[in-house]
Write a structure and sequence with these properties.
Elements (H helix, E strand, L loop, with lengths): L15 H16 L7 H34 L3 H14 L4 H13 L3 H12 L6 H13 L3 H8 L6 H13 L5 H14 L6 H17 L3 H15 L4 H17 L3 H14 L4 H14 L10 H8 L7
Length: 311
């Protein structure tokens, strides 16, 4: 049986009845010139429709804000529940695409997040959150080439460079030397105002870069700094930085320690991007896949797997 046609609003504050009210108000005003009711009635209907429209739009924005605050608190299920009906109703609205992408990425689905960020980027090219989210999504998907392309949206932003450094150092096909250079620059810029999450992530990337160069002393010192920096972080952030810390230990030739760190990251924030990435890398250690480590890792990767094509 076919479903009945559903009238849908074209904007967040819109509604079919509001559209009818606009038409009715116009007809009342026009009718006043040919002996109909006074034009004031048309004006009053238009003002009432505008008031309802603005109220509905405000409620829409409040729902987006509640979803954003839920993400900040690590309440991923609540954020998805708030965003899902908006995405279903307004799938082509860039602000909804961006919010849904953020919720999906945080929940460990970077593939869906990348798709939504790509759509949002066509209209929100100057939005820093879109650039950061798109680079991070491709880094999580092991697509260094796509992360590099996405970084061109806002190449000088600190968080974009941070996400790109992650992609270059860890993802397949990454330019390890570029990743090391980015990490050095980011570490040189670090200060207390950067925020605990950035400080922890930067130290984790420094550890990975040192391990890639074969500098086990430098890697060990950076891993220790990362472990201290993780302590005050929220669970989801701690899980993500823990994943990077585990990668650094693996690259430094300490698979047992890496496995333990991946396990802790998975326990910290189940259902998060950090848990998903830690689980993936943990399975690589446990499974049959050979994981190249140390300074020879880049040549091993390039001979065993190609860079996924850009979308």
């Amino acid at each position: 049986m076919e479903k009945p046609t559903v009238l849908r609003a074209s904007t967040p504050g819109g509604h079919p009845l509001i559209n009818l009210a606009w038409v009715w108000s116009a007809l009342l005003v026009l009718g006043s010139f040919i002996g109909g009711p006074p034009a004031i009635w048309g004006v009053l209907v238009a003002l009432a429709a505008l008031a309802v429209y603005l109220y509905r739009h405000r409620k829409f924005l409040e729902r987006l804000d509640r979803a954003d605050r839920a993400l900040d608190r690590g309440e991923l299920a609540d954020a998805r529940a708030l965003i899902a009906p908006l995405l279903e109703r307004y799938p082509a609205l860039p602000i909804v695409q961006k919010a849904a992408a953020a919720a999906l990425y945080a929940s460990g689905d970077p593939l869906s997040a990348a798709s939504l960020y790509e759509r949002a980027a066509k209209h929100l090219r100057r939005d820093p959150d879109v650039a950061i989210g798109l680079v991070a999504s491709y880094a999580a998907l092991n697509k260094a080439g796509d992360a590099r392309r996405a970084a061109e949206l806002d190449p000088t932003a600190r968080d974009v460079r941070l996400a790109l450094a992650w992609a270059e150092l860890v993802a397949l096909g990454g330019d390890r030397e570029h990743g090391v250079a980015l990490t050095r620059a980011l570490f040189a810029e670090l200060d207390a105002s950067g925020g605990a999450e950035r400080i922890a992530m930067t130290n984790a990337l420094v550890a990975i870069a040192a391990a890639r160069r074969g500098d086990r002393v430098g890697a060990s010192a950076a891993v220790d700094r990362t472990a201290k920096a993780i302590e005050p972080l929220a669970a989801a952030d701690a899980a993500f930085v823990g994943y990077l810390q585990g990668v650094a230990l693996r690259e430094a030739g300490a698979p047992k320690e890496a496995r333990a760190v991946f396990d802790r990251a998975m326990e910290r924030a189940p259902g998060s991007i950090g848990e998903a990435l830690a689980r993936r890398e943990r399975s690589r250690l446990d499974g049959g896949a050979q994981v190249p480590t140390g300074p020879d890792a880049q040549s091993s990767e390039s001979s065993s797997s190609g860079q996924p094509a850009s979308d």
